[in-house]
Amino acid sequence: MDCVFRFRNLVLIAMLINPHSRNFSELTFVAVFVTVHIFMVMWMSANNSPAPDETAHLTAGLHILQTGRFDLYPVNPPLVKCLAAQSIALAKPQMYWDTTIIKNKPEYRPEFSLGARFVRLNRTRIRLLFFNARLSCLLFSVIGGLVCWKWSRDLYGPSAGLFALALWSFSPNVLAWSATICPDAAAAALGVSAAYCFWRWLINPDSLGAMIAGIVLGLAQLTKMTLIIFFLLWPVVWITYRFSQAHENSDTNKKPSLPELSAILVVALFVLNLGYGFEGTFTRLSEFSFVSSTLTGEGSFTEGGGNRFRETWLENCPVPIPSNYLRGMDLQRHDFEKGLSSYLLGQWQDKGWWYYYIIASLLKVPLGILVLTLISFLLSLKFSNKTCLKSVSGDSNRPIWIHETVLLIPMISLFILVSSQDGFSRHFRYLLPAFPFLFIWISKTAVPSQNKLQLLRFASLTALGWTVVSSLLVFPHSMSYFNELAGGTEKGNRYLLGSNLDWSQDYYYLQDWYDENLKMHPLYVLSNNTFSRYLLDLEDAGPSPPSRHVKHSLSKDMEPGPIPGWHACSVNQINNQTGEYSYFKNFTPVATVGKTIYIYNISLAEANQVRRTLGVGLLADPSTLHRSSLSSEKYSSTDFPYEFDSNKLPQEQSLPIQIAVLAIDQHDAKEYDNLKKTLDPIPFIVWNFLSTEEIQNGRLADFNVVIVPGGKGARYAEQLEEKGKQAVLDFIKSGGGYIGICAGAYLATDRYEWSLGIINAKTMTGKVESSGDGLINITARGGGKAEIELTPAGKEVFKLTPQLISIRYAGGPILSPAGSYDLPLYSVLARYRSEIWAFEAQRGTMDGSPAVIASNYGSGKVIIFSPHPEVYPETRGLLSDAILWAAKRKPTQ
After folding, report:
1. Which one of 3.50.50.60, 3.40.50.880, 3.40.50.720, 3.40.640.10 gives the CATH number of domain 646-887?
2. What is d(CA 312, CA 314) in angstroms, rounded to the nearest whole number?
3. Tens digit of pLDDT for each residue in 790-831?
């Protein structure tokens, strides 16, 4: 399909070069280009996973719609995020606003943690929610393309109009950010629209034109704060234009007046305030608490903020902009002042570079556009005094350079403004609002009468074709585009990182690759955000370990060094500033997902070779498993760790399966009633209660499987003592089976000092702050009926067939990989597909987490249930199936 799509567009470009040869009308070409652009943006909107900024924008938009407040993510105005949020409002996505997170601190920025929460709470439909949100923003990109076409057509003629539209429609940078709900593409579209309306007013001034110019300028201000510079540029452009009219007869043409210019700016300011619902408009300047040194007057950040205007003659001045608009500007300035780590040409530093966007432009802009820019510059020198080729009412005889100032002044000013903010240099997309002005200006290279040199005309058409082909060869991974000078996308990480290459957009492609190639194999996933794991449905082994203990590491609970297994690694993480994952450069990826996720299949020998270089302990042979020797049972691409096919289990002819049930209370205690009801009818087992004393005395040797039921895991551990726990470990290691239910699952994990550590899982534990409740125990979530769904591995163990299984939950562990090298990876047999919670902080942490997991330990088998399969009659079969698997044999007939 991609090949057909690309060929079709190459044909379209060929027709653009000579449109009359196909008898196509100009509007037909416009429709085709816009339609193709829409298709490409929709394709990426559907298949690119959410970027970190997108989660924050969408969450902030929902917060505005639900609370009417603009204090979340104030560094970006509300238009785009509100439009995106409105498009999904009817779907009623889950979200809650934690007052302990949205703190009344001027410097606090909770939008990204709330964005991760939004993904977690809506994980089952997050792809559809973001697709709908992105579609609502597609209108901006269509507007941007049409304005490029119309303005270029007005200046240079129909061929130039189509030329500019083609540049917009196929620009990889425009495509990439039009397929997100980040405001950069919208700012580019409405920014150039505002400039176009202002230009129309300049050449044909009237009250209606001034009103339209003011409204569109105000809408542009509601997309991105960078465009505030237009309030300064419009008077400069007006003065330049009026200067060109100085020697004209005032009766000949009506001239744009100062009162109308003032009206444009006032209307724009009104629209800006209207977009915020006049929130805090005309607040006195002294009432603000700022955090940036620019506005506090302090040399460094002061807790609680400050205000340099207090006790000055300005303190009582009303501020004619929304309070959160000014607060957003202050926060953004604070970010630039404090500096952030930045990457350029393979080097990291704690601030940016003034020349960052110059170099980034040479690498991220198609070379064809750079060639067209050079040609356009040469043509401007040669034909600067030529008049417009398209007759413009009232101003057709003015030199073209006068009209081009309306293009060049915003374009150059935006470039200078963005480059001057060198506190950090991370996002080339910040320059996107300048792109449409460039496209229009260089479109004049398509005009025959301005391009009498045939060589230049051929070069212009070739450069356009080169631009389109270069973009299409990377599509749909346009966000990762690098031109041929950079060596293409594959070499981009040598020069730029972050949103210039890897902004978490390829995780849906990772899911597709996993389903096709690995299926049930455990996979270490090293992402560059906190929410990508909620987008994936796979055997998650946790993040890959770092090369050393590093503060803030994603894998801070893990021992350092490469380990065998399958790894999916973000290119950002491999090249991050700490270098904690740079050891992956010693391995060769077996595949690349999208353009930003490298897949590694590391063997034990390869891991140890690199570990030796790093000076960390070597891993023992996987055929041994002793926690004290730092061995690790890992598996290659062809060896799946667990055998789940009951038909392949060895037949045992002589004895039924002997089951021991750990009991520390009376055998007839109420908590054992349901377990008795489950075990008694099973015809192929013989079961007995076993006390902790009996286990300590070696009685487990008479059994095949031990079941540790519900209760309290810590109490079991206390009663077993070290002697009893060692007896359980020896029993499993020598071939016995272990089944843990709720408390028995807690006891099996590798989380607590008192736990057995027989399965490579940890539990959510500890005290956290919860809205309105203070510090709460994260495990105290209550109980009730939960829903679980079997995984493909689980369907090979359990015979239950419903898509969703209702099961009793009573405070069981919320499980995740522990990252212990001396334990094999577990396999998920079932996941929760519902949520039970008692406190706000617990919401979203259960749904999608493992409900049943299984693993090997020595020669034995371990399977643990977070819920209670023995309570409901319809789920008791899960326990009998688990016994079969843990015993490693079929029952007697």
Report:
1. 3.40.50.880
2. 5
3. 988 898 899 887 878 999 999 999 998 887 777 888 888 999
